[in-house]
Write a structure and sequence with these properties.
9 helices, 15% strand, alpha/beta, 7-stranded parallel sheet, single chain
Length: 255
């Protein structure tokens, strides 16, 4: 069983891996032996994350990337492959939100969210695919949300992007199964991160509503995503593809 989850010799890129959910997943991969490339916009945060992963005994490095820019994303993948000789895992985690009802959201804000959350997953997956195919297989994990399922009034573009993530995951899983590339989505619930802390200040009563609906009775923490990352990025999930798995303390099952 240990061999199924062992990621020694595997190279993983985690976009937005320098904080929050991305860093929680990166810690899971690093703890199980993977070499992790942390890709993000904030160089200082990325350097801190890399030191943390190295403190776990892992090989890790960072790279600055604009996930909305094709050339930047292609360079990110090329850098990882050039440095480590292969690419086995891609976690498309980078994301933003602007909390406004649809009638207040501007077209520029709509494009910014869609490009960061959804187009970025296409760009990175497109760049990673030939390397994974040449390796004989790989794992791609796309980060969706509870908003992949529910439509909150304050998240029109975010919900659209995260719904699109689930459909994009299914398409890639179908297209690339023949290449032994498994593509899955994770749908985090309400996780205590910098992004959601702002939400608690912007949306009155959010904390109380989340706690009341979540059977686990708490907000999640980034390390709650570590286990699912290891499962979906290791040999343990070789016959799992095209899924969208909630990690939400039961939030989605509670009416």
């Amino acid at each position: 069983m240990k061999k199924m989850f062992d990621m020694a010799g595997k190279v993983a890129i985690v976009t937005g891996g320098n904080g929050g959910i991305g860093l929680g997943m990166a810690r899971g991969l690093a703890s199980n032996g993977a070499t992790v490339v942390v890709a993000g916009r904030n160089a200082e945060k990325t350097a801190t994350a890399v030191r943390q992963l190295q403190g776990l005994g892992a090989s890790a490095s960072g790279i600055r990337v604009d996930v909305r820019d094709e050339a930047s994303v292609n360079a990110m993948v090329a850098d990882a492959v050039g440095r480590y000789g292969r690419l086995d895992v891609l976690v498309n985690n980078a994301g933003i939100n602007i909390r406004k009802p649809p009638h207040e959201l501007s077209l520029a804000e709509w494009h910014e969210i869609l490009e960061t959350n959804l187009t970025s997953a296409f760009l990175a997956s497109h760049a990673a695919y030939p390397h994974m195919k040449n390796n004989g297989g790989g794992k791609i994990v796309n980060i969706g949300s509870m908003m992949s399922i529910f439509g909150a009034a304050f998240a029109p573009a975010y919900a659209a992007s995260k719904g699109g993530i689930v459909q994009f995951t299914k398409v890639c899983a179908n297209a690339w199964a023949k290449d032994n590339i498994q593509v899955n989505a994770v749908l985090p619930g309400w996780i205590d991160t910098e992004l959601t802390r702002r939400g608690r200040t912007e949306i009155e009563g959010l904390n109380e509503r989340v706690l009341a609906r979540t059977p686990a009775g708490r907000w999640g923490v980034p390390d709650d995503l570590a286990g699912i990352a290891v499962f979906l990025c290791s040999a343990a999930s070789d016959f799992v593809t095209g899924t969208a798995i909630p990690v939400d303390g039961g939030y989605a099952i509670n009416g």
